[in-house]
Amino acid sequence: MNRYQPIPIQWYFDPSIYELEKENLFKQNPQYVGHHLMVPNLNDYYVLKCSNDREILIHHENGISLLSNICRHRQALLLSDSGNVKRIRCPIHSWSYSTQGELIHAPHFEQLPCLNLAKDNVSEWNGLLFRGNSKIQEHTIESKAYRMFDFSDYVFAQSTYQHYSFNWKIFMEVFLDNYHIPFFHNGLRRLVDVNHIEWTIKESYSIQYVDIQSDLTKFGTDNFKSYQNELLAEAKSNLPRYGAVWMAYYPNIMIEYYPYMIIISTIYPVGVAQCMNIVEFFHPKTIWEKNPGLCKAAQEAYLETAKEDEQICTRINEGRKALYEQGENQYGPYQFELEAALPSFYDFLTEHINR
């Protein structure tokens, strides 16, 4: 057991801290916007839920860019969901833009207004796309993690999102906590062995390599029974070493490996006590095409765990809120082997917010 100094309870509820986070934390660190597999082909687009549909990723002749999804005429949303277009046309007045955002048609205007769509470049790491000239490439991510999160021959399957009524930092804390898994996740604990974890802890990220359980014929829940049965049938005796690899890129990006699935989830604050989690699922192309049942089972097992994590976050939020309203602050010990990355996360927050 070790004692450490976590962030004050005030930081989960104080609007002034939330304003500092927006300026000093999120604007100053890499902002994930999507993956190149969302727009793999020329003229593919993908509307971004993380920006409330006001931006799109689009694949044009010169690469991939972020474009505004708001018409410059009457500010209507231009595109929805995802698809493939040779030009971006507003359905209301037929103003049309090239896939690089240039206004190319405005009916009944003798001269085109100089009103192009706002455009931003993206930076790429391992297929992940970040707004602008991101500094993520300046951080050396160990090669082992790079291999575990290799998206070669993967396809983007789908994304989901969920709104939560608690501070975003609580979600990150639970992600970095393996201590609760044997007690709260009846399904997950039969897939991963938290008694065998390798940690990598750096200034801007941490990684948990968690061994797969030795006997996958033991199930905790129906969803994990389906996933483990599909996994055993597909892999036969060639099971991977790890049941999960969990990477947190601070402050709010989570990249997760499971057998035959990679997930990118990003927790976005939408207020001091509200947040949104966007989850993106990727699977090996061959598995996606020949064994959709395995992909479906893997996703449902993950979503079961995510729902349980929401319950944990809600309980922690309610307890801390009760203390905050009484003007109290409490710190507990942390379990070094199973909560090893929490101090690094708190250090990252403190360094950036106190600038």
Brief characterization of the structure:
The protein has helices spanning 15-26, 143-148, 168-175, 181-184, 222-235, 285-290, 292-325, 342-353, and strands at residues 32-35, 44-47, 55-60, 63-68, 82-84, 88-89, 96-97, 103-105, 119-125, 128-131, 154-164, 192-201, 205-212, 242-249, 253-258, 261-271, 274-284. By secondary structure, the protein is α+β, with helices and mostly antiparallel strands.
Task: Report on this structure.
It is a single chain. By secondary structure, the protein is α+β, with helices and mostly antiparallel strands. It folds into two domains: 1-29 and 139-355, Naphthalene 1,2-dioxygenase Alpha Subunit, Chain A, domain 1 (Alpha-Beta Complex); 31-134, 3-layer Sandwich (Rieske Iron-sulfur Protein). It is 27% helix and 30% strand. The protein is built from eight helices and 17 strands. The strands form three sheets. A seven-stranded antiparallel sheet has the order 1-10-9-4-3-2-5, with no helix packed on it. A hairpin with a 2-residue loop joins strand 9 and strand 10 (128-131). Helix 3 crosses helix 7 and helix 5 (222-235) crosses helix 7 (292-325). The longest helix is centred in the C-terminal third of the chain and has 34 residues, at 292-325. The protein is globular and about 70 Å long. The two termini are 31 Å apart. The mean pLDDT is 94.
Which range does the strand content fall in? 25-35%
Number of domains: 2
And the CATH topology of the largest domain?
Naphthalene 1,2-dioxygenase Alpha Subunit, Chain A, domain 1
The CATH superfamily name of the largest domain is Naphthalene 1,2-dioxygenase Alpha Subunit, Chain A, domain 1
Q: Report the top-level CATH class of the largest domain.
A: Alpha Beta
Distance between the termini: 31 Å
Which architecture name of the largest domain does CATH use?
Answer: Alpha-Beta Complex
Helix fraction, binned, reads 25-40%
**What is the SS-derived class?**
alpha+beta
Shape: globular
Structural Rg: 22 Å
Cofactor: Fe cation
Keywords: 2Fe-2S, Iron, Iron-sulfur, Metal-binding, Monooxygenase, Oxidoreductase
Organism: Legionella wadsworthii
Protein name: Choline monooxygenase
